[in-house]
Structures are given as structure tokens and as C-alpha cells.
Amino acid sequence: MSILIVGSLAFDDIETPFGRSDNTLGGSSTYIALSSSYFTDKIQMVGVVGSDFGNEHFELLHSRNIDTKGIQVIDEGKTFRWAGRYHYDMNTRDTLDTQLNVFADFDPVVPEQYRDAEFVCLGNIDPELQLKVLDQINKPKLVILDTMNFWIEGKPEELKKTLERVDIFIINDSEARLFSGDPNLVKSARIIRQMGPKTLIIKKGEHGALLFTETGIFSAPAYPLESIYDPTGAGDTFAGGFIGHLSRCETITDTELRRAVLYGSAMASFCVEKFGTDKIAALNLLEIEDRYHSFRELSRIDE
PANTHER family of this UniProt entry (predicted)? Predict the structure, then answer.
């Protein structure tokens, strides 16, 4: 089934205790699209870039059968740029520079041929833009939305309005507490799910992820990695693996949602092993399936 992805495309300057990478291809939609491309070949992107977004970057996306007709190229502008430095624990970071450039005036226009998309994944952009995208889609089977603390603090009412039209909401633990106003994640999940989305995923970084549905709670572990080089984009990569798996399911059941969380976690665990998109752009299906089964084995107990 087709997946429409709307979000940012960017260049990142990333510094961690274990190295540095400048002019690294990034952006929420880039990570989501590359990750989900291992599960389906029907991926469509809507975004905006400047003239500095070279052919090599488009060629990378095309090599993964990603349709980029919805990406606007502004000839006189520059692509969104972000620079950040991670602390030693890799859980906290300092933003050193943000240049919105052409992204500051991003006005998402969904091409006519994209408007019948069955799955829609909205990256962490302005909730008003997310709603504008949904107004252009005919009858999506499933809508997944991500956000960040900037929008939770700056546009909470707009975000709540958008959530009324969302099936699955993905946020991290600090965002869940901030948005719900409650420190307890179980209570936070109940409060947020009452806003619209029937399914909620709360990411907990190195402590895994929680899935909340109408039938209960599922806790997925984090993969025990010895080397973590760059956590940038891990959450978006998770979303890509998650929606990628669901797109190939005939019926979305609670079991398939749990499997999707593990596939998302598997993809995110690959992402952090190299800087930027380097790792997730060069995987194969056998690696992904092996990592998925490793996740299943982490919590399996033989009776």
C-alpha cells in the first residue's frame, strides 16, 4: 500500500563524543522514507529543499524507489540546516544552530496523484501544516503523526485539533508528560488518547517503547548496542519501520501493531550505529529480519 510522507529535508552538522559529521543528509521525512522503503516500494514524499540539495541526494532517494515529485525545489534558496552537539550520555543535546531557510515558508501541496494515499505519515512539522495536508487527502486508511516539544509548547490547541483526525500518535516520554500535564506515563497515555488517536506510542530512548491501544499496553525493549555513534533521526527511523510494516499487513490487528513496534525499534537501532542516514541507506532485508527476531528473543521466556 502507498505511504505519503510529509516533513522536513535537511542538512545536519552533528557532533557526538565519538565523532563529527558535517553536511549530513537529514530531516524527519528523509529518515522516515528511507526506513519505510525496506517494506514497500510505494513511497511518496512532500517537502521543500533549496538549490543546494544536489542530484546525489535525489539519486539516493530514487535508489530506494522513493517518489520525490512532491518535493519543491526553490532555486534561489537554501535547504533547512541544523547543528547540534550530543552529551556523553547521548540522551541530551545542545542545538548550536538552526537555519530554517526555505523551510520557513513551507506550504505543503500534495500532488493530485498522491491524494489517494492509503497511509499518511506526518513528521514533526507545524500542526497547522499537518492539518492542511490531511485536508488534501481523500480517504486515508491510516494516519500517523509525530510532533515535538516546540509545537506542544507553542501550538497546543492546534495540535489537539489535528489529533482529532489521527489514528496513531508517536511521541517520546518527556513530550508525553509535557502534553498531558501528568508525570505518570500510563495516565499521560490515557489523557492523550482521549484527544483522538486510538493508538499511542511513547518512545523511551535507550529504555525501549510503550504501545497503548484499546486492548492494553505492550512494552518493547531497547536493543543492547555496544557502539552508538549518532542518535539523530532515530525516532523518525522508528516511525518509518513502524508504518512500513503496517503498510504490508492485510489487516491491522493488535498483534501487527506490536510487530510494527519491534520493526520500528529494529530500524532505529540500525540508525544510531552510524552518522546520519548512512546506515539505514545501506541495509538489506536479511539484516532487518535478523534484528527483528533478536528483539523478539530479548523478552521471550520458554515455558
Answer: RIBOKINASE, SUGAR KINASE
